[in-house]
Batch of 2 targets.
Target 1
Amino acid sequence: MVIFLVFGMWVMVVVVKGKTGNTTSSSSRMHSVVNVGALFTVNSVIGRSVKPAIAAAIDDVNSSPTILVGTRLNLILHDTNCSGFLGTIGALQLMENDVVAAIGPQSSGIAHVISHVVNELHVPLLSFGATDPTLSALEYPYFIRTTQNDYQQMSAITDFVLHFDWKEVIAIFVDDDYGRNGISALSDALSKKHAKISYKASFTSGASEREITELLIGVNLRESRVYVVHVNPDSGLEIFAVAKKLGMMTSGYVWITTDWLPAVLDSSELPDLDTMNLIQGVVSLRQHTSSSDIKKSFEKKWKNIKDKETSSFNSYALYAYDSVWLLAHALDKFLKSGNSITFSYDPKLRDTNGSELRLSELRIFNEGEKLLETILTTTFVGLTGEVKFNEDKNLIHPAYDIVNIVGTGVRIIGYWSNHSGLSVAVPESLDDQTAAGMGFPNNGTPLRVAVPYRYSYKEVVTKDKSPEGVRGYCIDVFEAAVNLLPYPVPRKYFLYGDGRRNPSYTNLVNSVAQKPVGDVTITTNRTRIVDFTQPYMESGLVIVVAVKEAKPQPWAFLKPFTIEMWLVTCGFFLFVGCVVWTLEHRLNHEFRGPPRQQIITIFWFSFSTMFFSHRENTVSTMGRFVLILWLFVVLIINSSYTASLTSILTVQQLTSRIEGIDSLISSNDPIGVQDGTFAYNYLVRDLNILESRIKPLRDEVEYVNALRLGPKAGGVAAIVDELPYIELFMRYTKCEFRIVGEEFTKSGWGFAFQRDSPLAVDLSTAILQLSENGDLQRIHDKWLSLASCSSQTTQVEETSSLSLNNFWGLFLICGVACFISLGIFFCRILCQYLRFIPHDEEAHDHEIVEPASQTPRTGRRSLRGISFKDLVDFYDRKEAEIKEMVRRNKRHASRDSDEHNSSPS
């Protein structure tokens, strides 16, 4: 009875399925047709490329003799019309046809809605265009992203922004799930690198030109000029049309877009000139797809597709094509494993009274979970490269082309991948190399170590016949550091370069994914590509020049002072001598005598103060004040002269036209650099020295010959190289040449590893331990110890003569003091002369007594009666005579007063 009941129920199920147009079988061999759904907006930038690509993929699968033999895929397409609501309706309609999987959608917002439907019905959803990072959440188990994740794209933008040391950006994005969640991923990526989004400018999908104009006006008022535009490809160009009108597409503005812009440009074989004029200078990211034969074959097939609306295709078409093939490979594996395709009704889906939605017609794909697992474990090589998922259900090896819009075309300026970061190398070449040597802690695969095969300075690192195949200072440091690690690291060295010239260290860092070990200088640009360990050798660029002995100069004793300084100094000696003589003449007998003797005294006193050997004593207060100040000035001048002359006669024994980096830049002489090092790029890019002046040199012999020849004979005026190499060079030449100036860069040597390599951190700790226990110094002394050139490494900078500018303050103080003293002295003399000098004494004895009404005579004279000759005669008298005359005048005045009072009235 039970058997008959079960049989009856099975018949009813078959009948019901027949009525709805669906067939179900329990045997895999009976599935001649499998329904596959497709959901995307047909009339869109992405949809117009994707539609013919999916159709071509279905045809290629159905005509393939090696996959799904006896089973044909039936494509059922529904247009979502960029609407979440219509997309949901389309998804429900697809589910009525018992599809085993759905391809699409392209919109992240619609993908969020549809994911709930496929979760309920257990139908895998393979999206070639939904890049929203949040769709990877466990909330959407049946959502499979067959394109790149925006989280990786925002990491690429972050690395590009930080490459130029920009710390703030402004995000312009469409306000939906795709825009908001993408910019949120950008904010997270920037914050990890100590940068940030300074302002978020959002607008709704379908915003008018006026709204976009207001948005960009507000953006333009912000301080940052670096803009990241994350919008939909169908409306994104409106941003640049408005920006151009506002003058925001000129120099000084940086525009970076996500992969929507290349999706627009790649859809047309011939670029639209009006569009290209709008986006000149814009930098954009494009999903990287490897170049392969099957991709070239698809490009040829595309030209023969008739039902297509675009002359070319974008990367989303390639991912859609691979999505169909991914499903085909998974279904082939699924069916060959003996699995059947069956559907069953969900009792939870019931029609409500009066509803025409017919939810009860929707059925669950019973084997959906098994097919999902099969899809996630399927691996094959498609148009986009290797298709394989990691544990987070994301495609492995995410990579992007970095393109720049220039002229009428798109130029690739670099690449980004999640394992190498920014690079000028194609990501596939780095993928293959990276695969070797990454699992050394677990499976013992040797760590492949790249060693520069040098032509010169082989003490640093070079080829060897030992089992390791290499030797040198850098190798010993690396081996010592590795031996300190708490885990074994199997390693294998291989040489980079041919040994006939030094390899390019920039190419070594950029192109070799294996860990470079050697004299690799840590520079800012290189740290953006790889991770460096703690520096194990301090370094910096220095200048080496050829020098010659200076000829003896018989008049070198005059060099400490300039001509103006000598003239002013001599003039002040005479001036101070005259001032002191003037102040001392009336009081000091040593400053009196015949005119000839007085002139000799002035000269002798003046110049004897130079050696503090003047024999004349000063007795006046003003004279002593002036002399003290002058002796202080003489002390400073003597000390400065002695120091400058000592420097000229002892230090300045060598001559060179190049005195340091400033004189090297200002000259037009050729400069030698070591071949392969970063010095060439540093001089050209950072110091703006003409490339024609730079001459690469291979080894020490070329160094010597170039310096000896000099710039006039085809050599160089100076060599710029790192200090460790120059120290070895000085030992090689027995200190024949000299270092001038100071180190003008500060850097170091370190071991380079791929980004985020844990080995870089562990080796840094080991290097610090080597430094602390002294092993690092012992290794240095073993390979790089050298005879000291300190006795001859004299700076050859020209000693400048001391000018008047160095001492005018002292001369000013001394001169002011002299003039003040003279002023006080002559005022005192004039007062004495006006008040106390009488009329002629003989005339005084015979003068007539003045009437009583007149004022008694006191010896005063008016200014009109002053004679210069009388004033000079008065000054020439001794102070004692003047004082005696003062006393005599007082007595005369007193006597005259008494006589006048006693006379009868």
Note: Confidence is low (pLDDT under 50) at residues 1-29, 433-444, 791-797, 839-863.
Target 2
Amino acid sequence: MPSGNLLSRRKRSWRANELVSRSTLQLLDFDDGSPPEHAWRRKLSSHANRLKEFNVTFREAIRMMKLGLRLWSYIREEASHGRLDNLTIGRKHQLTPSLERAIDPRPHKEYLLVGWGVCDISLQPAFMSFWFHEHLLCKFNLFLCRSGSISRGFRGEFKHWQITPGYCEMSPVMANQFSIFVSRGGNKKYASVLAPGQLDGLKKSWDDGISSWDWKLKGDRSTYHALFPRAWTVYDGEPDPELKVSCRQISPFIPHNYQESSLPVSVFVYTLVNTGKEKAKVSLLMTWANSIGGLSHHTGGHVNEPFIGENGVSGVLLHHKTANNNPPVTFAIAACENQNVNVTVLPVFGLSGESSVTARGMWGTMVQDGSFDQDNFNAGASMPSSLGDTVCAAVSASTWVEPHGRCTVVFALAWSSPKVKFKKGSEYCRRYTKFYGTSPRSAVNLVQDALMKYKHWEEAIDKWQTPILSDERLPEWYKITLFNELYFLVAGGTVWIDSESLVVDADNKLNSSLLEDIDSPLRDSTFNSTAPLIGFDPHEIDDKENVGKFLYMEGIEYFMWCTYDVHFYASFALLELFPKIELSIQRDFARAVLREDNTRVRFLADGTWGIRKVIGAVAHDLGAHDPWHELNAYNIHDTSRWKDLNPKFVLQIYRDFSATGDMSFGKDVWPAVCTAMEYMEQFDHDGDGMVENDGFPDQTYDAWTVQGVSAYCGCLWLAALQAAAALARSLGHDDYAERCMLRFAKAKSVFEARLWNGSYFNYDSGISYSSRSIQADQLAGQWYTASSGLPPLFDEDRIKCTLQKIFDYNVMRVKGGRMGAVNGMHPNGKVDETCMQSREIWTGVTYSLAATMLLHGMEHQAFTTAEGIYITGWSEEGYGYWFQTPEAWTVGGHYRSLIYMRPLAIWAMQCALSPPKSILEAPRVNTMDRAHISPGTLQFLQDSVRKITPKNGCFGNNVFNWDC
């Protein structure tokens, strides 16, 4: 844990008046209606920042021209098949070609978002800046589920729709709102949508749509408070000056709970306090469009129906018929009735005058009566909507609040979308169906359980968060950012399936071979050509934990599932909170190591052709359009030649093994570890024990060329040798461990001789201008070594000297340490502008660097480094990247790739502060201590270099003789 000197880092994250008066907080301090002390806060009247996308330099654009042309050709080819390209940004969502709308590059009003989508051909290649434009983006905050996701902005708008895998619609559906109606004796009446009214054309006399509603909320007396997975919106006298209102939003994101965390539900708890002298009738209204974002509500065939459930729960089901043969979705909006709260519904209203009940008419009824006709519950299912029409539903909950009295009203949203269908035909059941079945009407049971169980969910969330929030030694900004960065585990296009569910082919017929393959995909049935497995039973790797299969995207602009070089950074969050999911993902990649797909693929960086997946090479990702089966959606470079993926696999395997103590996991993945290590042998070109890079960007920095021995890949290789040895010893393979450590000693001497310059390790051993650059990520291998409880790779003095150098140059020489760590810095103190990535600040790398500093007792440097990400991304003085933390930004504040996986690496800091119990209790003298290597052997290694061919392997011919 951090030392006491962290007290000097404790700073408040908001203005001294805390944006909400203390008297209001005290009034709301019952039934958890008052927001917590530690939360990210904004006034609803705050304005979104204009976000600036990155620009490549003229030199970079010229260098990338051929790549851009090949990428453009690839995008057009994918679009012709109706598929989403995996490496584009600026995409928009479209469900049918007839509903296409162009991206508007002009600034938009704050509520409007430019959407990203699936297969539109007005796309922007990721590396071609002359196709980019700036977007005005309104930030979003709390995310709702792992069965697809919907975001809700801090100003109340529902947006960022990801119900269908790979489809993302950023634009809000503005009919989806909460509204309030208050009447006090006499003529005191208040009515308003509970969102700031800044829509163009509001209150047009001829409009029967939502602009006819009362958008009176200014937002200057209302504040939003976020601490994922909960959020509070406090309306301090808006619109009724004598009414205090708190809306608490709860999503069941509960660490180590693999059932309720999979549920597609969210609960909205309204706490009402009447400070006036008159009794007030308060009606809260939830409206919802039959839509999954974008223009999907226009596609027709949608049906609404009321329902009355158990325990006072009632509402409306909205059955959505999706386009393009995607699985249907059923929404449930509901409220809970009790002796104090009366619930009524309006099953159908439209947004135009052609509807029998219009949005204007619905609003007028609420203003006059505060409720709907009870007979509406007997209305039955509506007629299917016509093409182009928008049908919506409403649920009203009314109550009387006595003078100085308090009351609670609870709404919930759930949806049933039981099937996940990927573009190339594979179809699965979502995880929640294991508990609720596949019926569309399971939405009723979901919403009922949410309204009955949300208090238990909150107790579990409090139990998880309180120890960290109450730790006086931790900076406040860190506590806030730590939890809120977890938004990505829901917003990252997450798909969580039941691994026991049926797998259906494109013709919707049961395919038993694929069913077997999903549980143990080591068979020949899926790939065109699968190499035989050597001495390994494919049934040995199984979903033993029974937590299903889990996918999350690299980023909203990079459509690849579980990108492994990035998961290397992000996986600390899963290991800490959902370790069984983390082990499941690792088993998926272990299977993939032992597989080969001979499909021919063109690599866009140089135009060469190769095979999609090479046996022994760790997959870059689990695919895009047919995950788990068609791997490696990434095709810029041939990742079978990358030097970081295999070491990262071995390091993650050992870290997870040491953190969980799961012996069966270690035995399951051991063959893949051996194969991955053996595969790396071919990259030791001169037989000195150290792998070399091949003069192209052959690692996660895929635009930053590296030559010869490199600090990043070389350090990862050293750490992987040590981790493989430790795993071997734990599993009883002492001879293998000895060979790993012999190789380690040999490679280490080469690494230090080639790269150590007295104060840090050079970027690489080449002769380019950037070869002596200070790379922020140069100790990535040491980070994992220390995180796994292994002995350090280098002398502690060298490690701390290197970290201090990075801190002094890459951190403090960039805006005084207020932006994070720039990837590359020349020793003269100037940013390395060799390429786009060398001059960027990577948010996740900055967090991992801070974690490394914590592991080596450099708390001040660690928190100063990480605070730069908070200042730039989350604070009011920053650029406004909250809840959409990008992969990178430049010193000038231009971002690249919003909503990205790697920033989850902040949880590596928490793992450094509170290591897993199994690592803390491990023997201080590690079982694979290097002291067992004799001086004579070391001398031999230094004096004799023997080139071992890839055919024979660096660990001898017995590498596949496992005794697991």
Note: Confidence is low (pLDDT under 50) at residues 1-11, 87-143, 502-541, 925-964.
